[in-house]
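Hi team, as promised in this morning's meeting, here are the two structures we talked about. I've kept the exact order from the run log so nobody has to guess. The first one is mostly here for context; it's the second one we should focus on when we meet again. Sequence first, then the predicted structure tokens.
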Amino acid sequence: MNDMVLPAPLRAADYKSDYKPIWCPGCGDYTVLSSLTKALAIIQRPPHEVAVVSGIGCSSRIPAYTTCYGFHGVHGRSLAAATGLKVARPDLTVVVTGGDGDGYSIGGNHFMHACRRNVDMTYIVMDNHVYGMTKGQASPTTEPDWDNKLSPGGTGIRAFNPLVIALAAGANFVARGFSGDPNGTASIIAQAIRHPGFSFVEILSPCVTFRPEQKHWKEVVRPAPVAPTDDPALAARRLMTDDGFNLGVLHAGSRNPYPTRMGQTATRVADLESEFEL
């Protein structure tokens, strides 16, 4: 009897495309891409069974840099596209990537309702507190006193708190990573993908071009001093006293994901068209 030959385990490199990333030198998104491919290697899902969806912005280029199925959508609408994809194809692992401008400004409404619907997908937001692609405007997470040429003296507007919003809206998994810790972030992303329901991972990803002071983030981030909880009330109390630099899984809930029907026969285009005939 011939010995059975098992396929070689998938490596992070198997999820990287031949396209060279074109971010600014020193951008944190390079290591976030590395963390994502490492996470996919951890879960060992073949690239053709994974879909990466994005909107507009520096971080939204990620689908092109993977060998997975990819969809580069319009500004702020990545979660809407990903929700439709996951409901139509529940057999796929769906990962959404974007930034704080795309996700929390024009995409803010989709963000809240994606958390509420709890469809089984993972949303990774690379947060650098600035619009990097459009040359340095304040974003929803920018500190109100950040002084710059476009907002002298700062905007004076309270910063958006994405983890609090995600928890309050019903996200089933809430975590924070740091681009300077690619292995730790890969572990968090893998946990998020495996957790049922809507998983939200904020990744602090410095923009050294327009926010060079963010280089000091590596000196202030640290593992969260508390263990993950499935109690949203406890998680909320922790978040309201969080300074934004505690890393790790904060909340891992037990809500049932939005129901999808596996194993359905695919609907033919002709059948759909017949429903609209006059």
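And here is the second protein, the one for discussion:
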Amino acid sequence: MTESFFAPCPRGLEALLAAELTRFGASAVAPAAGGVGFSGDWETGYRANLESRLASRILWKLREFSYADEASVYDAAKVVDWPELFAVERSLRVNLTAIKSPLKSLDFTTLRVKDAVCDRFRDARGRRPDVDRATPDVRIHCFLERNQGTLYLDTSGEPLFKRGWRSETVEAPMRENLAAGILMLTGWRPEQPLLDPMCGSGTLLVEAAAMARGRPPGAKRSFGFEKLASFDAQLWKRVRENAAQPVARGPTLQLHGSDTDPRTLAAARRNLAAAGIERWVKLEQADVLTRAAPASSGVLVANPPYGERIGSDDALAQFYPALGNALKARFAGWRCYLFSSDVRLPKLIRLQPSKRTPLFNGALECRLYEFEIVAGSHRGR
């Protein structure tokens, strides 16, 4: 039986996610701002949760409706046969988001959706499920536009960028699905050396190793669909077994990371160990402004400090030119990718980007800048 789904993702990665979902067997794939709609059976839905490196969630579309006020939203939500979708013993949470909705209070509308669900249970079962805002068994999502709404059940549970391995975080960690998308946008291949010279908690390196080894990103976690009435345990077992098939041994990985802070490096080492990929990554304490390239060519990718995250404007105005000089002096032959929200970066780094890809880190608009470092000047190219 074919179902309709929507997979949110970091804005800027929609085309990559559409291609990924197509590989999982999805049909009617339709990229939109901030995600991808698609159709498929439950095997496709299970695979998308287990194997997608880019999606934030996989939402199961239950119904679309028109509305004019909070009462009509309540009525639309009560139409759904919730007791057929999950047991009354399951705790729930309702999330509501809106774009250009005329409703005055989204908090009150969220309560009305919750009331509709609970009232439907009380009518059918004589009791209602409990609400748990922190760790619910079932998450219901309501999305409102100007006069149209959509109700979803979240099949993921915790967001999919929570891979189940992270044990340590440092200041301003990058979400795992954004890191995976950045690596895909660089065109890095496992046979190429990869360096993150400002590696922080090691997110880019963990994602690179998992991609190279073919490890499903959801292999170490559970999912929301396991608590729904439609859950097919035998199908899920088969999907997991198929995803766990060993891939042909690829090239020896050359993954390198460095940072100046020993405490940050210690946290990164713990994260690499928790992800089971520490043997494939070489970490060292080093300053990006003085360290040497680990090979004659490769891919450098980094999320350098910027004003919204770390450091003052004056300090960054001094750092960026020094970074540009370091790249020119020590990384000729490398493709370098810097991810930042600081629009001054290309001017201050004094290098001409060959590509600028708009991406969002949460609500923060950023760019992934590509710099092809060659010996000498770019002026004659």
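Starting points for discussion:
The chain has a mean pLDDT of 92.
The chain has two domains: 3-154, 176-215+246-372.
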